[in-house]
Design a protein that fits this description.
24% helix; 6-stranded antiparallel beta sheet; single chain; alpha+beta
Amino acid sequence: MHLRDACFELKVGQMHSGLHKLASKWLHISDSYVASSNDCVKLLHPLEITDNVLSTIFMGGIDFYSTVFIHGIRFTSADYAQGKVGDDSSIIFKTGLQENFGRIRRIFTVNDTGPIFYVDVFKKN
């Protein structure tokens, strides 16, 4: 089972309560951040930084954050995770049929839109 599948299974699946509790703890999923239909994205810990690369790509107001919860699943930037016990900055995602692994470099919004991830992708040799 992929990590993404496990996260969704925790929210909607029929899972043994002991396994559910253990997987929730490992994946840092907290019921206090369970999203309702009106509140499925929660940006936390705004940062006062600038990123010259992103500023040249996106016009408008760019706001940076270190943490975002999407449907109760926690994602953090690599800078925030550095030195912490848990690291929620590593992700597996698909582009087309290609599975990719990367670390979230930045979490940001442009002109108060939804969160965007800037990800360093690790390629297979």
